[in-house]
């Protein structure tokens, strides 16, 4: 068996194009952007296929280019069970036969250690592309592959050219996979929170996506501080910063307070209108559905912290 990845030039073109897309559009891409494909030798090729999980453009002879999560149904949130474990991602076989055309391409990809792209479904129609990923194991009993990722800044090398010995490489990828899962969780949290708040700051209604964050009400390190919508608030950069430094507090009934030390200061419009102006006002954007609104006990715990800091 040759160790040469005949499909290498296409793979590199795809990954370079994806890098550009993510730089322009952010790390979560809508399907219509992914579906525009990439240029290879004057021709447009696809990154992935809407209906299939395992994909390669017809020019690729040996292995696959990408894998894609089956899309969670419209209106239903993905459960991300996969993200809770510290192991690799479990990627389901296409069908039940490991010898089928699609699965065989991944088995070969594993044998040759070729880098693939993983379009990880964040919600219906939205994917966070991860690359390079590698097939680490085939699990016939579970009808799945174990997929691991490389460090996000790792150089994508042709198969067989990795400097680290295989044991070290496998450890590195394990570690990188755990880090990647954390990032995916945060990406999903951001996506869901911003959608629940109609992509506006809950304090000032500012609508520019690039300047919006999904803030945690209870921080990550709090055991209740899960990245779920009722523990989130969509906030613009200014109000997120003010909330995190306890210059801006939110009462459990949704009324905004500004720290006394800030109220006593005088300055230009950002302070006067952008911060002090919201004192005593109610949050102006909240999710429509009750289950998605901030949990009162979370707000209470957070408000106590604000009071102590003031
Ligand atoms: Zn704001």
Task: Give me some keywords for this one.
310 residues; two-stranded antiparallel ribbon; alpha+beta; seven-stranded mixed β-sheet; elongated
Describe the structure.
This is HNH nuclease domain-containing protein. It comes from Myxococcus fulvus (strain ATCC BAA-855 / HW-1). Residues 201-250 form the HNH nuclease domain. Pfam families: HNH_2. InterPro entries: HNH_nuc (IPR003615). With 310 residues, the protein is α+β, with helices and mostly antiparallel strands. It has two domains: 8-194, no CATH class; 200-309, no CATH class. 33% of the residues lie in helices and 20% in strands. It is built from nine helices and 13 strands. It has helices spanning 8-25, 31-34, 81-84, 101-112, 166-196, 237-244, 260-263, 269-275, 296-309; strands at 29-30, 38-40, 43-45, 54-55, 66-68, 89-92, 116-123, 126-139, 144-149, 212-216, 232-236, 248-250, 256-258. Strands 1, 4, 5, 6, 7, 8 and 9 form a seven-stranded mixed β-sheet that branches. It has a two-stranded antiparallel ribbon with strand order 2-3. A two-stranded antiparallel ribbon has the order 10-11. The protein is elongated, with a radius of gyration of 23 Å. The chain starts with 7 loop residues before the first helix and ends with a helix. The mean pLDDT is 90. The structure holds zinc ion.
């Amino acid at each position: 068996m040759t160790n040469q990845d005949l499909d290498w030039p296409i793979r590199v073109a795809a990954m370079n194009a994806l890098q550009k897309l993510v730089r322009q559009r952010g790390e979560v891409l809508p399907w219509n952007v992914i579906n525009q494909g990439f240029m290879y030798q004057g021709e447009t090729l696809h990154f992935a296929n809407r209906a299939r999980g395992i994909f390669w453009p017809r020019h690729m002879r040996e292995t696959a280019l990408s894998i894609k999560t089956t899309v969670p149904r419209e209106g239903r949130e993905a459960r991300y069970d996969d993200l809770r474990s510290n192991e690799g991602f479990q990627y389901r076989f296409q069908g039940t036969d490991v010898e089928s055309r699609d699965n065989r391409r991944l088995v070969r990809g594993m044998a040759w250690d070729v880098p693939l792209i993983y379009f990880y479904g964040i919600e219906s129609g939205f994917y966070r592309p991860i690359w390079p990923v590698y097939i680490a194991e085939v699990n016939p009993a579970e009808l799945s592959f174990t997929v691991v990722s490389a460090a996000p800044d790792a150089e994508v090398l042709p198969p067989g050219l990795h400097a680290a010995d295989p044991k070290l490489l496998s450890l590195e990828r394990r570690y990188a996979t755990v880090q990647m899962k954390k990032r995916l969780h945060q990406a999903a949290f951001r996506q869901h929170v911003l959608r629940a708040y109609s992509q506006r700051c809950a304090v000032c209604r500012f609508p520019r996506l690039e300047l919006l964050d999904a803030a945690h009400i209870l921080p990550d390190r709090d055991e209740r501080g899960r990245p779920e919508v009722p523990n989130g608030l969509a906030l613009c950069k200014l109000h997120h910063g003010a909330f995190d430094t306890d210059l801006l507090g939110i009462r459990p009934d949704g009324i905004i307070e500004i720290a006394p030390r800030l109220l006593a200061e005088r300055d230009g419009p950002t302070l006067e209108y952008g911060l002090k102006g919201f004192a005593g006002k109610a949050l102006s954007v909240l999710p429509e559905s009750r289950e998605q609104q901030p949990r009162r006990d979370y707000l209470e715990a957070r408000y106590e912290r604000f009071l102590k800091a003031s």
